[in-house]
Design brief:
This protein has 456 residues and is mainly α. It is 81% helix and 0% strand. The protein is built from 17 helices and no strands. The longest helix has 32 residues. The radius of gyration is 21 Å and the shape is globular.
């Protein structure tokens, strides 16, 4: 039940990657619209997640999960039959609303079901593996559907899954336990969504070769005002959604950076590689998606084993070592592309998958385990936002920079595209290497549990 909901949420983050060329052709989308089609989903999801957790506490997580499933199904139908690019953007935003309703309930139900720390760590590792596999399988599922059906079919597959998940939730989920004493602050969620939307627009416009200074300045100003308004409101609330003191723990901060960074590595690699395989190497959508499964096949066991063996090996080799491996995998993938060696490219994808899976398997444990008890709900919200915000920023940064590097490239289109692709992989490798150093500092004592008593 939980896995079905989480699988859909993570699948919809990446299922568009192989479908973008078909959508651009049939809907006539511009590059900017294409980025918004991808980003509308994680943007709304990130902006509403913190508040959605509190709302779930108030009305009950079982009910919240059911509402999210229904919204997700309705939005999937709207996306499948969207008549224009902006209609598809709106449907993707509604998908984000549904996903934000489901996500907090998944971890809440895990916490209720597994009170033992070792069992909970293993369960969270499995939870992370479902997210990894869903994100990694998105391109191949999309490619398989496009071999037979039109682009809208990639959203229709959610509908039967929603129906099954609703039935299983009604039959198997724990009783709904609302807490009317909890207050849901909708204003904070709106401020958060406003700040993230403006930040995303700022990044896109800053990387745009034909940037408009007035729009860039306005977007940056709105991002700052929205962020300041959110922070000010948190200081006035008795039960804030987020306070900065929670980041005083090195373990907690390291977990947040690991969650965001793992999405930068896996999403940045996956998004650009699926496009390159189709537009430069002339792969079909299915062939391109199938190639990407090398990441999923490698990521799944790494994610499961990481959570199960945390008490034996500790955070340091899994997170800092994982980022070091991610940097090596991105460089290996670029080398294979330059040499025209598809087996070497597959090896690079597999190395990236293993590395990201290892990081994701325990970053959630670090975030949740390092937070003080009275901040556990806040920590769960931050954990979920970290992954979605990582996806959001990855698409905004790599997509915008890719477009800029492509525009200034020399030679034939295929050569310029390949050059821009290699530049993106170089950026992914550089970010992964930097995160390996930063997370080494955060986890240098190599704790073998997320719990820490000091905020140093």
């Amino acid at each position: 039940m939980i896995s079905l909901g989480l699988f859909m949420v993570s699948l919809d983050n990446s299922i568009l990657f192989t479908a973008l060329p078909a959508i651009e052709e049939q809907l006539g989308t511009t590059p900017g619209q294409a980025l918004w089609i991808i980003n509308a989903y994680p943007l709304v999801l990130s902006g509403l997640l913190l508040g959605a957790g509190t709302l779930g506490d108030r009305i009950g997580h079982r009910l919240m999960f059911m509402v999210g499933l229904v919204l997700f199904g309705v939005a999937s139908l709207a996306a499948a039959f969207a008549p224009s690019a902006w209609a598809l953007v709106a449907a993707r935003a509604l998908l984000g609303v549904g996903a934000s309703s489901m996500m907090p309930a998944t971890l809440a139900l895990i916490r209720l079901t597994f009170p033992d720390e070792q069992e909970r760590n293993t369960a969270i590792g499995l939870w992370s593996s479902v997210a990894v596999v869903g994100a990694a399988l998105g391109p191949v599922v999309g490619g398989a559907m496009l071999e037979v059906f039109w682009w809208g079919s990639i959203f229709l597959i959610n509908v039967p899954v929603v129906v099954v998940a609703v039935v299983l939730t009604a039959l198997l989920a724990p009783p709904n336990l609302p807490n009317r004493a909890k207050r849901w602050d909708a204003t904070s969620s709106l401020y958060s969504l406003l700040a993230l939307t403006a930040l995303t627009l700022t990044i896109k416009e800053a990387a745009n070769p034909q940037r408009r200074p007035a729009l860039l300045a306005a977007a940056a100003a709105v991002a700052l005002v929205g962020g300041a308004a959110f922070a000010r409101r948190q200081r006035r609330l008795e039960d804030p959604l987020l306070t900065l003191d929670i980041f005083r723990s090195r373990i907690f901060t390291g977990g947040v950076l690991a969650a965001m960074g793992s999405m930068f590595v896996i999403t940045g690699t996956e998004l650009q590689t699926t496009q390159k395989l189709q537009l430069v190497d002339a792969f079909s959508p299915l062939a391109a998606g199938t190639a990407i499964t090398a990441m999923a096949v490698a990521a799944f066991p790494a994610s499961v084993l990481g959570g199960a063996n945390l008490r034996r090996v500790g955070f340091l080799p899994l997170i800092a070592g994982g980022f070091a491996g991610g940097a090596a995998g991105a460089l290996l993938l670029a080398a294979g592309s330059r040499a025209g060696s598809f087996p070497l490219e597959l090896l690079g994808l597999a190395v990236v998958g293993v590395s990201a899976g290892a990081v994701m398997s325990v970053s959630s444990i670090a975030i949740i385990g390092a937070a003080p008890a009275h901040r556990s709900g806040m920590a769960a919200g931050v954990e979920e936002v970290s992954y979605e915000f990582g996806s959001l920023i990855t698409v905004a940064v790599t997509g915008s920079l890719f477009g800029r590097w492509l525009a200034i490239g020399d030679g034939p289109y295929e050569a310029a595209y390949a050059s821009a692709y290699h530049s993106v992989l170089g950026l992914v490798a550089a970010v992964a290497a930097a995160l390996a150093l930063v997370t080494w500092w955060c986890f240098r004592d190599n704790p073998k549990s997320g719990v820490t008593s000091s905020y140093d």
